[in-house]
Design goal:
Blueprint: E1 10-14, H1 18-29, E2 33-38, H2 46-55, E3 58-61, H3 66-70, E4 74-77, H4 86-93, E5 98-100, H5 101-106, E6 112-117, H6 122-135, E7 139-144, E8 161-166, H7 169-172, E9 182-185, H8 199-206, E10 218-222, H9 226-232, E11 238-242, E12 251-255, E13 258-263, E14 266-272, H10 281-297, H11 301-310, E15 319-324, E16 327-331, H12 338-345, E17 352-356, H13 369-374, E18 378-381, H14 386-393, E19 398-401, H15 405-415, E20 421-424, H16 437-453
Parallel strand pairs: 1-2, 1-4, 2-3, 4-5, 6-8, 6-9, 7-8, 9-10, 10-11, 16-20, 17-18, 17-20, 18-19
Antiparallel strand pairs: 12-13, 13-14, 15-16
Helix pairs in contact: 6-10, 6-11, 15-16
Length: 454
């Protein structure tokens, strides 16, 4: 795999954000003639343009030029770029290979890959897995859809490295020979239906994580999700199951106050439940998945437990922000799909106000009606999907529309009694009002802090 060469080839990198910059820089170092193409005009910072010029990389902004793509020997896609763009489809018809940024990086990595996918919980599981491996004395490098782009890890990749890669459907969509040593499939529910034609296509793309594995590899699968179990049957790697609701004959499960591994009637304690700092059954599932990976790699129970005890979760994922006048504020901006918002809502009891909305990516907002209604919750609707949120939920709960995050935070506090919770868990993408989910979460936290100042 390391014999892959681009020396003298003309490579077009589509998308000039984080992954595109990493791919272009790596390709230039490896001897390719590189052109970065982006339909946006304001995506590249002046400092990045200077770096591109210094590396000999050409940059074309504002449109994708047919003549540039027609002259390409290889096209590399950033995750945000659909392979169905007409200019890319035409290039593929002419025989030009089209691959994703993680596919490019994986062809040069010398370390092994642990690839983690699923609709929700990927970032939490990826980061916790890396910390478990670190605690066990392994050299873990986090990247992919979280942290460093995989192309930025190629130069530091060594045979002893384990690349723990958060892997989205967008990244898997244009893979060819991408082969994880351990693949992990956490769960599956409708998401990104603004990009994928339908749920069936979304599931098929996710299943590519198993495609190139052999019987020498391993796949870690969630036995609590029938869709994941069904998809895993297509894989050739050895299946290792985990569950937080069932007593498996073999696999990682919850039993007797601990996350344990059971095989042939014998149980081995991996992590006591008292060590888990994250709220919600869904997070227990993420910890069980990470513990499964740790066991496969060879991390001792004591090291695993130490890592889990220290892990307080991610920014923007059920993140405690503050308490003002008896009201608790929780930032779950990373919940960009309906399934993620549902599990967040189910972490709380009554006296709940939820901020929903943004750019809707598909799925059924109606699925939130029952957990919201049973908690007597009120919904504050925000962003492009404000009317869709109202239409989907107004028969079950009170829905109030606002125009700004400041208005949402102020209104939310005014509606709640002592002991109540204001939860930002949008169930939608952020790109209608914010640069990304992180900026949305930061704006929410800033508005919460202003309440304290007042």
């Amino acid at each position: 795999m390391n014999r892959f060469s681009v020396i003298g080839s003309h490579v077009v990198v589509v998308g000039a954000a984080r992954s595109g910059i990493a791919a272009a820089t790596l390709l230039a170092k490896r001897g390719a003639r590189v052109t970065v193409s982006d339909s946006r005009v304001d995506v590249v910072k002046p400092s990045d343009l200077a770096d591109f010029r210094e590396a000999g990389v050409s940059v074309e902004l504002g449109e994708h030029r047919a003549e540039t793509f027609g002259a390409a020997d290889l096209i590399v896609l950033s995750p945000g770029v659909s392979p169905k763009l007409p200019v890319i489809s035409r290039s593929r018809e002419y025989g030009v290979p089209v691959i994703s940024e993680i596919e490019l990086a994986a062809r040069w990595l010398r370390g092994r890959i642990v690839a983690i996918t699923g609709t929700k919980g990927k970032s939490t599981t990826t980061l916790l897995t890396s910390q478990i491996l670190d605690a066990g004395g392994y050299r873990a490098i986090v990247g992919g859809n979280i942290g460093t782009a995989l192309c930025n890890q190629v130069e530091e990749s060594t045979p002893d490295a384990i690349h723990v890669v958060e892997t989205s459907s967008f990244q898997l969509e244009a893979t060819e020979i991408f082969r994880p040593w351990i693949s992990v499939f956490l769960n599956l529910s409708p998401d990104h239906l603004d990009r994928h034609e339908n749920f069936k296509e979304y599931a098929k793309v996710k299943a590519r994580i198993f495609e190139n594995q052999t019987h020498e590899d391993a796949m870690v699968i969630n036995a609590d999700d029938p869709r994941v179990v069904e998809i895993a049957r297509t894989g050739r790697a050895k299946a290792h199951k985990f569950s937080v609701t069932r007593l498996l004959d073999e696999g990682v499960l919850l039993d007797s106050g601990s996350i344990s591994y059971r095989s042939n009637g014998v149980e081995e304690t991996l992590v006591p439940l008292s060590a888990v700092q994250l709220p919600g059954l869904h997070n227990l599932s993420n910890v069980a998945a990470a513990a499964s990976i740790g066991r496969l790699v060879g991390v001792a129970s004591k090291a695993m437990t130490c890592a889990v005890q220290k892990f307080a979760g991610l920014e923007h994922a059920l993140q405690y922000v503050a308490e003002h006048n008896g009201v608790t504020f929780i930032n779950d901006s990373k919940a960009t799909n309906v399934a993620s918002s549902r599990v967040a809502i189910e972490c709380f009891d009554r006296d709940l106000v939820v901020i929903l909305g943004g750019r809707f990516k598909g799925g059924r907002l109606e699925d939130l009606a029952e957990p919201l209604h049973s908690r007597g919750a009120t919904v504050i609707a925000l962003g492009e999907a404000k009317d869709e949120v109202r239409e989907a939920l107004c028969k079950s709960v009170v829905v109030i529309g606002v125009d700004t995050m400041a208005a949402a935070v102020s209104l939310g506090q005014s509606l709640l009694p002592l002991g109540g919770t204001l939860l930002l868990s949008p169930g939608c993408a952020s790109l209608d009002m914010f640069r990304d989910y992180a900026e949305r979460g930061q704006v929410f936290m800033r508005e919460v802090m202003k309440l304290g100042d007042r």
